[in-house]
Amino acid sequence: MSAKTVNNKAWWLVLPVFVMVAFNALIPLMTVVNYSVQETFGDNIFSWSGVRWFQQVLQSDRFHGALGRQLLFSGLVLLIEIPLGLFVALNMPKKGFWVSVCLVLMSLPLLIPWNVVGSMWNIMALPDIGLLGKAVNSLGITYNYTRQPFAAWCTLILMDVWHWTSLVTLLCYAGLVSIPDAYYQAAKIDGAGSWAIFRYIQLPKLRHVMTIAVLLRFMDSFMIYTEPQVMTGGGPGSSTTFLSIDLVKSAIGEFDLGPAAALSIIYFLIILAISWLFYTLMMRNEEA
Amino acid sequence: MAKISIDNLRHSYLPFPNPDREEDYVLKKLSIDWADGGAYALLGPSGCGKTTLLNLISGLLVPTEGKILFDGVDVSRFSPEARNIAQVFQFPVIYDTMTVYDNLAFPLRNRGIPESAIDPRVKEIASMLDLTSTLHKRAAGLTADGKQKISLGRGLVRADVSAIMFDEPLTVIDPHLKWQLRSKLKELHQRTKRTMIYVTHDQTEALTFADQVVVMNNGEIVQIGTPIELFEKPNHTFVGHFIGSPGMNVLPCEVKGGKAFFAGQDIKTANTHKGSGQKCEIGVRPEFVNFAKSGIAAEIVKVADAGRFRIVETRAAGSSIKLLVPENQSIPTGKVNLAFDADHTQIYADGWFAGGKL
Amino acid sequence: MKQFLKATVTTVYIVFLLLPIYWLISMSLRTTNEILDTTKFSFFPRNITFDSYNKIFTDPTWYMGYVHSLEYVGINTMISVAVALPAAYAFSRYRFLGDKHLFFWLLSNRMAPPAVFVLPFYQLYSEVGLFDTPWAVALAHTLFNVPLAVWILEGFMSGVPKELDETAFVDGYSFPRFFFRIFVPTIGAGIGVACFFCFMFSWVELLLAKNLTRIAAKPIAAIMTKTASASGYELGLLAAAGVLTIVPGAIVIYFVRNYIAKGFALGRV
User: Fold this and answer.
1) C100, pLDDT greater than 90
2) At what angle do helices B100-110 and B144-156 cross, to 10 degrees?
3) CA within 20 to 30 Å of A64's CA: A165, A182, B236, B296, which one?
4) Nearest Cβ partner of B86 from A189, A192, A193?
5) Chains A, B: CB pairs < 8 Å
């Protein structure tokens, strides 16, 4: 690739995007920042409150609980989906008719509206009339996700694995098919077994897509709202109240503008910080 | 190390080729014998089947028909590992995350050889390839020629390897390093006495590397010979064209009573042709065409300077004839007469050297 | 043997993916009585009925939901790709003041939780009179779709050699003519992939779509949630509506199946 030319007139080409995103992201974010440092008693009367809301949020048990649950959820989801997605991708056919079939079927969950995913698993997991619920109960295990926090967690994680593992699979698959045949041929000639091929050819070549898969899955699982909202509504109790659910509850449900705005900003910053951390960790060896 | 024989090999990429349809096959009934320890080149234009042949020998492909024998043992259905060959690919294949040392040790470790035996071997090969100073660096950081040396090293490191195959290994190497790497290869061949088979479309690479060159075109072998044989006695007009720069002059001719006539003149040739009903041509390399007092009347069209000599393009009886003139010799202008060196002028019938294949 | 094991892994995974979908379809074909009667639990429906589908296709509050959804998804896809095209070109071809910062700022919007934006969007769009129109949702979704489209398109454009532009300019093409006549057709596949992902993320999002509409532009997904709670346990109807939301996605996937791998190969989703 030849070097890019310096041309500040290119700003005219970026202008529509800039205006659009400024309108869509800057104005709302400013509103949020505005609320986060003010106090209101209704009637649009605001007064400066400094970092009070931030302190209140950061010290509240409710926030700690939601953050802890959120971290646990994202962690578990990553631990299951990344290896599973990779494993499935390694076993997918490489060419022929079945590739298309696999790709289409695996993409299906990704294109289902998120609340339908929630409803679908709702119907699937209902203890008396759902396929999953009935099956588990008939094994002699008492299972009711609307009453048992543990069952609710298992169901939510199973649902997320169902919903998003395909994304990891598709990313890894795309990375795998882009490895030139010569690598596999050379490995064969060098007498490498399948473990050595995986360890020394496939895994290093997949580093880039794996980084993206981890980042995407982290970000999206950390922002999850609709599916658990539809499935469990954050319950039983508050056992599945994740950050987004908590935020929407306090912003729209309780109209607690100040704390909700402060929570929003903290929430956004956490995502940015952890994404940056993942990115630096996974790309660190690239330069070494 | 092994003697490699190819016996009536045919290959098709179609799942069910029709044995009677020649065009279904990318390789059409090949037979070659290669002695142990030789340096061979497979030369031909892109798409002539040379890489297919290479992959058949190394075991990455299974032939549709025919056999491949290593020291008399039919290995046609053996895996690459069982055949015990090494291959250097067009694009450098290295294990990115490993050091140069680990890359070279990889084939030995996979075969369960103890570390105490691996270490001296790796060091020996590294010094042969001038890789000692980079031995503990990450292989991913090397330049393209360094990476190709590693691929080659992974082949050389195994003491018992039957043959080393090269698939256009200099494609991604910078021009000024190509020459270096080529002489390195030649040197390594002399030192290790391994059988080496080198696939290329570049005549210079083939002619400088190999003791014997196999020229292929359209899935067929058109000639097997030493570089000198290919130059002086091309077995087919294709070889004449493909090897040499500029290629051989090929002129339509008439054959009467075993003699060839071009532009109404009787041309003395090295061979004679008795058949009839075939398309006959005279082949003569530009090196063996001279200006003369009498002979074929021609007109000079263009003179191009090519360093130590000049290429003169002339036209005679509707055909273009090129000749090489040394730089100190003067070139006449306008109408000239040309003479061919009879020892190096051949008759070709339907493209093939008349009087049987060489 | 190895092939067999591999096929088994893929098959088991796909069966796992299809089971909930099957169950949804199977529920949508049952009568409410059959669903609620736990003694009649069975893997296959006993009496297949299309009543639920019939209801959806005849009741405007239901089927208009699909129209609304497709409306804002369509508008969003068009806006996102249209504004992203020139921007992606600028990023792939030129260096300009603040280019890197702008690019990363754009991408950081992909990390913004929609929950953070619900309330400010609600206020913003109410203020400018867009609330409860497809435009509100379409614009809101550009928050994450525009950066995505820019990212995908930039990847495809960087793969097109710069010489193409230079040749065209030497041949006397004006910039707009070059851009629409030559460049856009060249990256057709990239535009297809970008449209696919814009469609996908706009189609599946609900939080913003639900909260920025009330009646006139209510998306199907929101109608489902409301119906589910309002009319108690009409599971068959809910399932049928769910099945119908899978259909547009399935159609789109079928058309872009050969490009999916390519889009993912860029690692830009």
Assistant:
1) no
2) 30
3) A165
4) A189
5) 51
pLDDT, tens digit (0-9, with 9 covering 90-100), for A87-141 = 999 998 877 778 888 888 888 898 888 888 888 888 888 877 788 888 888 887 7
Residues C219, C151, A222, A33, CA torsion sign: negative
- Domains of chain A are 60-287 (1.10.3720.10)
Break chain C into its structural domains and give their ranges.
Answer: 60-222+244-265
Question: Is B289 or B272 the better-scoring residue by pLDDT?
Answer: B289
pLDDT in tens, C47-94: 788 888 888 888 887 888 888 888 899 999 999 999 999 999 998 888
Set of chain A residues whose Cβ sits within 8 Å of the Cβ of B151 = 186
Q: Which CATH class is domain B4-12+24-232?
A: alpha beta
pLDDT value, residue A40 = 66
Cβ proximity of B333 and B300 under 8 Å: yes
- pLDDT single digits (tens) C200-246: 889 888 888 888 888 777 787 777 766 655 455 677 888 888 888 88
Scanning every residue of chain C, which has its alpha carbon at the shortest distance from the alpha carbon of A84?
C13
Tens digit of each residue's pLDDT (9 = 90 or more) over B194-247: 889 999 888 888 888 888 999 998 888 889 989 888 888 888 999 988 888 888
In this complex, the chains that touch B, judged by 3 or more CB pairs closer than 8 A, are A
| pLDDT tens digits, A214-253 | 888 888 898 888 888 888 877 787 888 888 888 888 777 7
Q: Could you tell me the pTM of the whole model?
A: 0.80
Q: Which CATH number fits domain B249-350: 2.60.210.10, 1.10.287.3510, 3.30.470.30, 2.40.50.140?
A: 2.40.50.140
For the CA atoms of A209, A210, A216, A222, the dihedral, rounded to the nearest 10 degrees, stands at 180
pLDDT value at position A163?
Answer: 92
* pLDDT of A84 over the 90 cut: yes
Nearest CA in chain A to B157: A190
Closest CA to B193 of B36, B337, B352: B36
Q: Which residue of B has its CA nearest to A287?
A: B141
Instruction: Give me the residues of C, 93-112, that contact A with CB < 8 A.
Output: 93-97, 99, 102, 105-106, 108-112
What count of other Cβ atoms lies within 10 Å of the Cβ of residue A273?
10
Inter-chain CB proximity A124 and C23 less than 8 Å = yes
Task: Please report residues of A whose CB lies closer than 8 A to that of C38.
Answer: 128-129
d(CA C144, CA A122): 28
List Cβ neighbours of C169 (8 Å cut-off, separation of 6 or more).
C175, C178
Q: Is domain C60-222+244-265 classified as CATH 1.10.10.10?
A: no
Q: How many angstroms separate the Cα of A247 from the Cα of each of A135, C38, C50, C109?
A: 35, 38, 40, 18
Region of residue B130 (phi > 0: left; psi between -120 and 50: alpha; otherwise: beta): left
Domain extent listing, chain B = 4-12+24-232, 249-350
Q: Do C95 and A6 touch (CB under 8 A)?
A: yes
Q: Give the whole-number percent of chain C exceeding pLDDT 90.
A: 8
Say which of A106, A175, A226 has its CB closest to residue C206. A226
CA distances to B6, B87, B160, B162 from B35, in Å: 12, 18, 16, 12
Q: Show residues of chain A in contact with B60, CB under 8 Å.
A: 185, 188
Chain B within 8 Å of A205 (Cβ-Cβ)?
Answer: yes
Q: Does C117 touch chain A (CB under 8 A)?
A: yes
Mind telling me how many Å the CA of C54 is from chain A's nearest CA? 19
Q: Could B87 and A185 be called an inter-chain contact, meaning their C-beta atoms sit closer than 8 Å? A: yes
Query: How many other C-beta atoms are found inside a 10 Å radius of the C-beta of residue B4?
Result: 22
ipTM for the predicted complex comes to 0.83
pLDDT tens-digit map of C153-190: 888 888 788 888 888 888 888 888 888 888 888 888 78
Taking an 8 Å cut-off on Cβ atoms, the answer to whether A185 and B80 are in contact is: yes
